[in-house]
Amino acid sequence: MKRLFDIIFSFLCLVATLPLMILSILAIKLDSIGPIFFNSIRVGYNNKNFKMLKLRTMYEGTELIESNKIKNVNKKVTMTGKILRKYSIDEMPQFISVIIGDMSVVGPRPALPSQKKIIIKRKKLGINLIKPGITGLAQINGRDKITESQKIKLDYEYLKKHNFFFDLKIILKTVFLTLKGKNISH
User: Fold this and answer.
1) pLDDT tens across 124-151, in order?
2) Residues linked to residue 55 through DSSP beta bridges, in sequence order
3) Centroid of chain to Cα 79
4) Which end of the chain lies in a sparser environment, N or C, as judged by fewer CB atoms within 10 Å?
């Protein structure tokens, strides 16, 4: 049932946000040189790497690191990128990853391969055996403003509690927090 919900919800989100995506694509092209999309290698289900599609928000050639560790933001994130990041518009192409089957709408955020501690802890707790999500319990409880340990604790809580209604609650809270642009470093 979760997979069917993921596909239908993702398709509807992509269709509903198409005008916003087109405006974002135009803004990216006018704002800076480089591709529109960015493929970020992430660690997914059962610790397998996959390509997670995002709208490009940084200048081409910028080192890929965790958002909360970016220094000199003004030199790395484009003007359009700041807006796209604030309202998580850059994350919209991830609905394609959900339709493909690499991600779910709700689950732990996929780690960067460089986030070794998170990957090891998730494997130890069995968190790596659920698909990563566009949003999750950690994203609605602090996102970039919480520690790795807090994220792991919330990911583990999600592993133990996840069901359809819990996912709906997380989605609704995500929409509310996204519209407010809350808990995003940059």
Assistant:
1) 999 999 999 999 999 999 877 888 999 9
2) 37
3) 20
4) N
148, 117 contact by CB (below 8 A)? yes
pTM of the model: 0.86
Q: Among all chains, which residue has been given the structure tokens 């732990």?
A: 108
Q: Tokens 């989100």 — which residue?
A: 13
Helix H, strand E, coil C: the string for the chain is CHHHHHHHHHHHHHHHCHHHHHHHHHHHHHHCCCCCEEEEEEECHHHCEEEEEEECCECCCCCCCCHHHCCCHHHHECHHHHHHHHCCHHHCCHHHHHHHCCCEEECCCCECCCCHHHHHHHHHHCHHHCCCEEECHHHHCCHHHCCHHHHHHHHHHHHHHCCHHHHHHHHHHHHHHHHHCCCCCC
Contact call for residues 102 and 14 (beta carbons, < 8 A): no
Matching residue, tokens 């998580």: 88
